[in-house]
Write a structure and sequence with these properties.
The structure is a single chain. The protein has a domain at 23-61 and 82-110: 3-Layer(aba) Sandwich (Glutaredoxin), CATH 3.40.30.10. 30% of the residues lie in helices and 17% in strands. The protein has five helices and six strands. The strands form two sheets. It has a four-stranded mixed β-sheet with strand order 3-2-4-5, with helices on one face. It has a two-stranded parallel sheet with strand order 1-6. The longest helix is centred in the last third of the chain and has 22 residues, at 163-184. The chain is elongated, with a radius of gyration of 30 Å. This is Large ribosomal subunit protein mL43.
Length: 185
């Protein structure tokens, strides 16, 4: 076991429990778009501000968006969440579409990032090296590329015969053999 966990901030989950059961509360509180008016690396950020920022703010009225022009510095997206966490993304030479994707990702996150060690109610001295099991662990990876609705996936799988069906076939086979032997005699 490594000592990496010693440098992480221990805390409990502070997001509202069951977020989305009654109504969903977006955890992203504030976004600050920092950019340079002249720097070539900020071109994608400036294009996003000119063309897509109004639509983004209309689609997400619960998130406050600030614009902060700075001289001779690269573009940065700073996000602040309801639980007090802050996250910064340095987006030098990003396109307008990439900026929109990053903002959408920040919008859907809860603010808890990888630098947080979440406490659990159980402990083991020998943790599993295989990782946690999920329902998708042993799924066929070709299902990731399947187009739905899919005729092949909607038909029932051809299951092997059960033991009862096998015994019934053997019984019918013996019965037919016995009937043929009696016919020959």
């Amino acid at each position: 076991m490594s000592n990496r966990h010693l440098f992480l901030v221990p805390k409990f989950i502070t997001t509202p429990s069951q977020n989305g059961v009654g109504r969903y509360v977006c955890q992203l509180q504030r976004v600050v778009l920092k950019f340079c008016k002249n720097n070539g690396g900020s071109r994608g950020m400036r294009e996003f501000i000119e063309h897509d920022l109004i639509n983004y703010t209309k689609d997400n009225p619960g998130t406050v968006v600030y614009l902060k022009p700075r001289r001779h510095r690269g573009p940065v997206i700073c996000a602040e969440y309801l639980n007090g966490e802050k996250q910064s993304i340095f987006c030098n030479n990003f396109s307008c579409e990439e900026i929109a994707k990053w903002l959408n990702l920040l919008l859907t996150q809860s603010g808890n990032h990888e630098g947080t060690r979440l406490r659990k109610m159980w402990h083991t001295e020998n943790p599993s090296v295989q990782g946690p099991w999920t329902p998708y662990t042993f799924r066929d990876p070709t299902l990731n590329l399947a187009k739905f609705p899919n005729v092949d996936l909607s038909t029932p799988l051809s299951c092997p015969k059960t033991a009862t069906e096998h015994l019934l076939e053997l019984f019918e086979k013996q019965k037919n053999e016995k009937f043929e032997n009696e016919k020959l005699d």
